[in-house]
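Continuing the series of single-chain predictions for the mutant panel. This is the parent chain; the variants come on the following pages.
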Amino acid sequence: MKIFTNLPGNLRAVFAFLRGVIVILGFGWLLNLIFSFSPFNYSTHVSMTAGDVTLQVDQGLIALKSGTANHDALTLTSLRGTLLAQMGEGNEGLVAALHRTVMPAIFVMVVFSYMLVTSLRNLCANIEAGEIFTKDNLRLIRGIGFTLVSYSLANIVIGFWSSAVMGNYLAENAILKDGLGLSKTAGSVHFDLPQYFISNPGGLLVGCLVLMLTEAFRQGLALKTENDLTV
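Parent structure:
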């Protein structure tokens, strides 16, 4: 197929497009968050999906009425659901907690995504120009590996941070209605950011694999340099 006749060039165009999309989305998210978190925004209709919440509940909230099983044979230990936050007037405490939770995740995602697609775009541009085993490509591949590893490690930190910030806020302020008892034990509330804010854990393994391939690429570059000097 013709699309594969100039694969590096086509991929370069794709990564250039993705870089533009990341910039646009980054500014869009930033403006949306500034508007949503603005103290001058008192609209009760502004809401956002904050993440997933797991609540540890008191035992004894579920029972069986079957004649062939004990009523306490099943135990409900937790409830999990998506947290939809309202940004209207009077929710300043919730808004502040969400601000501390979401903003770092967005910043990390946009910065590392931009760095990654920029390196991939430049690598494809070099390959399209016929430059394969060069020091610039070696630097780009090594940078891609470090970016993937750093992104994954940063997301681990962001995950702990967001869980601590929103988890503490919910543990202090959340209650369950309709007679459901919220457990008072430690770790009764756990918060997770939406999946689109957190990269796949496999990114750490992929980053390590890229760094391993970097060494093979470095040796190939050394052999090419040696052959050029011999000729």
